[in-house]
Amino acid sequence: MVRGDGCNKHYHVSLVRKAAWRSAEKMRDYFKNCSDTVVRWRERGPVCLEPETNPSKPGFVGEKKALRNELTSPHGVYLYKTRQDVVDYFAPNFHPPYNTPEKKAIIEKWVLNVDVAQYTLLDTAVQEV
Predict the structure, then answer these.
(1) Where are the domains of the chain?
(2) For 3-94, where are the alpha helices, taking DSSP H only?
(3) How many CA atoms lie within 13 A of 90 on its CB side?
(4) How far apart are the first and last CA of the chain?
(5) What single DSSP character describes residue 49?
(6) What is the pLDDT of residues 79-103, one digit of tens each?
(7) pLDDT of residue 3
(8) pTM of the full predicted structure?
């Protein structure tokens, strides 16, 4: 269903209604598999995803489609115009490893000791909405 004046083409489609598990056993198997996967991820630790450099493999972007220094300096931040249109790429400026005393101090200063009071809403009218 298209709503609005014709310029805004947002729509909604329900793909599933009243979905349920076939059995409690299937549900337990699914969540057991999810838990096992999360355990493996935690054992492995954080992993940086590297851009694919082999043209014959899926996921290869190529020099023509890459933004700025996306291939030589991965793990940055993408700026999107829409969901699919990437406008720009910003290379990272805080590189691993993060376990050195200097990097730990920076992380503690800016992440762990955040003043929570500065992020609370002061306007009660906004909170009521």
Answers:
(1) 24-128
(2) 24-44
(3) 6
(4) 28
(5) P
(6) 888 888 888 888 888 877 888 899 8
(7) 47
(8) 0.42
